[in-house]
Design brief:
Layout lengths: L5 E3 L5 E9 L7 E8 L13 E8 L2 E8 L4 E5 L4 E8 L1
Antiparallel strand pairs: 1-4, 2-3, 3-7, 4-5, 6-7
Amino acid sequence: MVNRISVRLPVEGLLFWKLSGREALSEPFTLALTVLGTDARIDRSKLLGQPVTVTIPTQTGSRYFNGKVTRVAVSAMSIAVAHSELLKVL
């Protein structure tokens, strides 16, 4: 088993950085996915409405979160890397 979170994104050139979220009984889950991109020219608007799958390995198998990109925002930029909050899944 590979001990890495993997993310299937609809745009090339983005790397997984951080995942945070909330999950509760009888409520929809929400996830915020932060990704890194080395090309600031990536058209982030192409991500809106696109499906995303996050796979988290566990001791008993994998856990999958499927959703759609509902918000894209750039949170910081440096010469080498652009940090983007990519996903809020409802």
